[in-house]
Amino acid sequence: VVPHTHDDVGWLKTVDEYYTGQNNSIQHANVHMVLDSVVDELQKNPDRTFTYVEQAFFKRWWRQQDERTRKITQDLVKRGQLSFTNGGWCMHDEAAPFYLDMIDQTTLGHKFLMDEFRFAPKTGWQLDPFGHSSTQAAL
Length: 139
Description:
The chain has 6 helices and 2 strands; from the N terminus they run H-H-E-H-H-E-H-H. The chain is mainly α and 139 residues long. It has a two-stranded parallel sheet with strand order 1-2. The protein is globular, with a radius of gyration of 15 Å. The two termini are 25 Å apart.
């Protein structure tokens, strides 16, 4: 079992609704609460791990944290308890991808991870059920 995220950066709800947990009549999602809970629970048990994917949400959460929480999070990444896969700004829309968009949003997410954590994702995955483009494999 690999505890992980697949948080759409806009699909059924707006980005803000997903992040804050608003408009649960459409879908229950509260990315901010997920990240708070993950960091809290990983601290309690060094055997636990979590894989995060969408940097658009993670960066927003990161900017709202105090220095103590940032340090804790950086330590979790260093210990390998919190890791990042794919590392793009969002998970590509495989239904109608355009390679330049895929490259741009992946670069944006990877830059953030390198700047803040000295972390470069080594794996990529695609959890959407729409299939994969040949560009995803090349990235």
